Amino acid sequence: MFLKNLFKRTAEKIELHDIQAIILRERPLPYHGVNVFLEIQDGPSGKVFLKELLPYITSAQNWWDSDDAWLSVAFTYEGLKKLELPAATLQSFPDAFKEGMAARGQKLMDINENAPEKWEAAFKDSGNHIAVSIVAKSKAELDAKKQVALRILSNHAGIKLRIQADFDTPIEGNFNHFGFRDGISNPEIEGSGAERLNKKERPIKAGEFILGYANETGNKYPMPQPLVLAKNGTFVIFRKYHSHVAVFNKYLRDQAKTKDEQEMIAAKMVGRWRSGAPLNMCPFKDNPALGADTAKNNDFDFASDQNGKIVPYSSHMRRMNPRDTKMAVMSDVNLHRIIRKGVGYGVPLAEGSTKDDGVERGLYFIAFSAKAMETLEFLQKEWVNNGNFVSLKNERDPMIGLNEGKGTFTMPSDPLPKRFIGMPTFNTLKGGMYLFMPGINALKWMCGVSPSAIMPTRPNY
């Protein structure tokens, strides 16, 4: 696995054995997986189901040195209620989590095309209680894990399977459906055992992502109670997007005649070439070798590009991680970072096609933060669907913004900036939810197993 050459045990300070693997472990390449959503129809059955699943839930221990398949589990607020957790515990969760993502539509700018009333039926109600995610490097390993989970599920009439969403690497080499290299630029977590890959950025305090540790302000974020439930847990963002790849291809062709010009516009919109090479390290031509080099393709800042003429302020990459950009609306970038573990679903569209084939394809956006609800609502409202923080008024993110055929993208250049208008929405939201992902000991507490009990060695499948 490529990470073995990049990460080594250093000043490990967080309890990796008690943290679920998906939070820190990188996806294997290629990857295959499934997201399963379950409804708890009987509380006691839910606890027994969880107890039987416990030995198969993978921890983050030695996360940089393993590409074995992993299984993780998380819960909606309604799911925690169904598990009959104490009233005081349920009350201690943040209001946004208790309300759920659909109820927060206005705060998330999930309106019009993205409004909850237009979501897929399976995401419109509160029947999704448990989320089980399995990721593996081969279909054989995935199938083995799935069979274990399904066998346990079949023993419990009080647990109902609602959604089974399979996914895998959309395009060979870890490229998303738009043809751009995926999975670059996750924050490094202090105390996780990671070496620094970007010499221009320092690791971020663990408490920004995992409950129970100091955050960037030196404090700890409020946690649900009791401590055994919160420690080493986190909150999860899950959003399903449908990617309009043909619309993206057509928009590029409508803006420029030559393939090279189209590729330049696409790179400016994202902030990277399709290979993953960042524009500010190769501004005029793609460099596939750099794009594929995980030790170098994120080792940069924007110090020498404060005018945005190389990487536009409004590009997706710069919006989501402004780094050292001098912003009109000041904000501590490190307070708004999230760990992204999104995965693609659906077969790829024929390369360069401008005709929609009617096939469903897109992204399951999965992200983690100790204050995920607050962070997502900030990002969606301020950085994705507004441009004030970089003096671009109402200009929205070109890739994930709600542009609805009237979006504008500004590309600073001499003598005048270039503006591309009439931009459609390239990713439409089809559903989403907020979840809580407990630590391993918390899962034991939830189903009545002593937190001090020794976790069995992961069985062979």
TrEMBL record:
Annotated InterPro entries: Dimeric_a/b-barrel, DyP_N, Dyp_perox_C, Dyp_peroxidase
Keyword Oxidoreductase: yes
Superkingdom of the organism of origin: Bacteria
Cofactor(s) required, per the database record: heme b
Keywords of the record: Iron, Metal-binding, Oxidoreductase, Peroxidase
UniProt-recorded Gene Ontology molecular function terms: peroxidase activity
Domain Dyp-type peroxidase C-terminal as annotated: residue spans: 229-385
Domain DyP dimeric alpha+beta barrel: 36-154
PANTHER family hit by this protein: BLR4509 PROTEIN, DEFERROCHELATASE/PEROXIDASE
Stated name of the protein: Peroxidase
Gene source species: Dyadobacter endophyticus
Lineage: Bacteria, Pseudomonadati, Bacteroidota, Cytophagia, Cytophagales
